[in-house]
Amino acid sequence: MTHTILALATLLVLVGSAEAEYIYTYTGREFAGFGPYPGTVSGVYSLQDRITGTLTIDDAATSQYIGGGYSAWPILAYTFTDGHQTLTEQNSVMTDNQFQGDLGAPWGDWRLAFVAPTGGLVSGGFGDYGDHAWLGASPTTAESRADENVGAGSIHWTVEHVGVPEPATFVLVALGLGAVGLLRRRRV
Q1: C-alpha closest to that of 124 among 26, 23, 38
Q2: pTM summary value
Q3: CB burial class (10 A; 0-12, 13-18, 19+) of residue 83?
Q4: By percentage, how much of the chain surpasses pLDDT 90?
Q5: Of the candidates 15, 153, 145, the residue with the CA atom closest to the CA atom of residue 84
Q6: Backbone phi, psi, residue 101, to 5°
Q7: pLDDT tens-digit profile of 76-121?
Q8: Pick from 136, 130, 137: which is nearest to 112 by CA?
Q9: Closest CA relative to residue 99, chosen from 90, 91, 109, 89
C-alpha cells in the first residue's frame, strides 16, 4: 500500500497543469484626466469614475498580426466596467482588439472596444486615445458619456500567469486521498 501511495504522489507531481492562462487586469485613469488634459463627463458619470477590467487569454494562444506592430489575441473571457455598466462576453461584443507587445508582458499600446445595446466602453493606449464610456445606443447621442483622452505613456495593465489543472490532476488527488484513507483505516 505504501508503494501505491508513493506512486500516486509521484504521478501527481509529474502531471502538473494541462494548460494555463494569462489574466490581464486593466485600471484606467479617472475620467478627470490630468494636467493640461482634462476629461469630460455628462449624465450619471463623474470625474472620479474610471474603466477597469480583466481579459483572459490562453497561454498557448497565437496572435493574428494586424499590421503596424499590432496583433489581435484570442480572448477567452473579459469583464470591464465603468461603475455604471459591466460588459462581459455574455452581454456585449468586442469590436476592437489590438495590442502591441508580447503575451505575458504588460501592454503599453492597445485598443479595445466593447459594445452592447445599452452602452459601450472603449480603451486605448495608442497615442492620446484614452478611455471612453457611454450609456445608450450610440456614443454620439448618449446622454451619459465620459471621456479621458490621455492613454499614452502610461502602463495601465498588470498580468498574472495562472495554471488551470486538468481533470487527471483532480482524479489523482482523489485517488491519493482515498488511498490515505484506506491506509489509515487498516492501521486502526
Answers
A1: 26
A2: 0.75
A3: middle
A4: 39
A5: 145
A6: 140, 170
A7: 999 999 999 999 999 999 999 888 877 777 777 888 999 999 999 9
A8: 130
A9: 109
Quick one: DSSP state of residue 146?
A: E
φ, ψ for residue 14 (rounded to 5)? Answer: -75, -30
Domain residues of the chain, as ranges? 1-16+166-188, 20-165
How far apart are alpha carbons 163 and 2 in whole angstroms?
A: 30
- Closest listed residue to residue 142, CA positions, set 79, 77, 84: 84
Give me the phi and psi of 69, to 5 degrees please: 85, 5
Which has the closest alpha carbon to 49: 3, 83, 87, 95?
83
Which is nearest to 54 in space by CA: 117, 95, 114?
A: 114
